């Protein structure tokens, strides 16, 4: 049965280490899941008359954006900093744009350090999943870039031309 052996102190929740590949996969999955949930909430808010004013939708969106996403990011980045032999306080660097790349590229320590044993080896399933998540994310970004913004509301009325606004 999982759990601490009787007499041993309990391991802190933010203790442990994760590899670069696992960090990359977890961060991509977290971002995609939170993005999909926020997109679904936004779509529902637009489709329901007065949906943007429904408190439950606003609370759910705020909970995802200000709770789940930052907490998950700090958690995984703390474990990644531990793998590099650094304090989890270094995870606050994630506030700086593109600092997550630092944690993805920084090699971890191969031997046991004060944060625990080395993370397990990356198996083929994890490597394929990580590659698929990267391809999915890059494909979504390319699709959004090529197609531009999506207009979910009614078409706005055309703007008057300058000749109609200032008759001669």
Main sheet makeup: none
Which regions contain 5 or more consecutive residues with pLDDT less than 50?
A: none
Subunit arrangement of the protein: single chain
Please, how many helices? 5
Summing up helix and strand content along with how strands pair, one would put the structural category as mainly alpha
User: Helix share of residues?
Assistant: 40-55%
- Average pLDDT works out at 81
How many DSSP E strands? Answer: 0
Radius of gyration: 23 Å
Keywords:
elongated; mainly alpha; 168 residues; 5 helices; 54% helix
Q: How would you portray this structure in words?
A:
This protein has 168 residues and is mainly α. The chain has one domain (20-145). Helices cover 54% and strands 0% of the residues. The chain contains five helices and no strands. It has helices at 20-47, 55-83, 100-105, 124-147, 162-165. α1 runs antiparallel to α2 and α1 (20-47) packs across α4. The longest helix is centred in the middle third of the chain and has 29 residues, at 55-83. The chain is elongated and about 65 Å long.
Give a brief rundown of this model.
This protein has helices at 20-47, 55-83, 100-105, 124-147, 162-165. The protein is an all-alpha fold and 168 residues long. The protein has one domain (20-145).
Describe how the helices and strands are arranged.
Blueprint: H1 20-47, H2 55-83, H3 100-105, H4 124-147, H5 162-165
